[in-house]
């Protein structure tokens, strides 16, 4: 059965063999407030929990009974995408911001696409040829591109050799900004 914050506080006070009066002196929290905390008649606030955490030498997570955090690693399962590309999701869910590693082998620039969202990508290896609106550019390893996906865009390998990118894609308005060097102020 799960214990409440009050039950944990009462158990810690008993374990440390403290009276409400002595705990009050140590923390600066009134005896009545401590009593109400231990009986769950007062909501535990950060202002009250911090001195108790220090006094008992326990983490706030232990004090409030926070659940353990699971394994943060993301299981990456490659997916075959259009035009022979491979996408490896780097985020767990299809939420408002998604991260992907993509391997691009096709060298043909396909019909530009337009859709909602904002994209940022970093070239890990190889060379990427990108068409954005009327412009066509080649990005090399270490270079970054960011753009509004409502602009017609497409990209491919610049030389037919595999190229790898990390791509972050977000809903419109969630822009990610990268600057390799401060702007030149002439």
From TrEMBL:
GO terms for molecular function: DNA binding; DNA-binding transcription factor activity. It comes from the Bacteria. One of its GO terms (cellular component) is cytosol. Gene3D superfamilies: Jelly Rolls (2.60.120.10), lambda repressor-like DNA-binding domains (1.10.260.40). Keywords: DNA-binding. CDD domains: cupin_XRE_C, HTH_XRE. It holds the Pfam family Cupin_2. Coiled coil: none annotated. Residues 9-63 form the HTH cro/C1-type domain. PANTHER family: HTH-TYPE TRANSCRIPTIONAL REGULATOR, METHYLPHOSPHONATE SYNTHASE. This is DNA-binding transcriptional regulator, XRE-family HTH domain.
């Amino acid at each position: 059965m799960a214990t409440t914050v009050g039950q944990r506080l009462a158990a810690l006070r008993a374990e440390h063999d403290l009276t409400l009066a002595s705990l009050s002196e140590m923390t600066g929290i009134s005896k009545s407030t401590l009593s109400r905390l231990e009986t769950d008649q007062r909501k535990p606030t950060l202002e009250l929990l911090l001195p108790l955490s220090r006094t008992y030498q326990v983490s706030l997570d232990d004090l409030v009974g926070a659940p353990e955090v699971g394994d943060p690693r993301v299981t990456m399962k490659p997916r075959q995408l259009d035009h022979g590309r491979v996408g490896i999701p780097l985020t767990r869910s299809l939420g408002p911001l998604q991260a992907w590693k993509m391997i691009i082998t096709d060298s043909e620039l396909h019909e530009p696409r337009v859709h909602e969202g904002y994209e940022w990508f970093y070239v890990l290896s190889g060379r990427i040829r990108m068409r954005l609106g009327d412009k066509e550019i080649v990005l090399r390893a270490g270079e970054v591109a960011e753009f509004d996906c409502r602009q017609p865009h497409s990209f491919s390998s610049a030389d037919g050799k595999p190229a790898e990118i990390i791509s972050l894609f977000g809903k419109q308005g969630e822009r990610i900004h990268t600057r390799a060097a401060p702007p030149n102020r002439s």
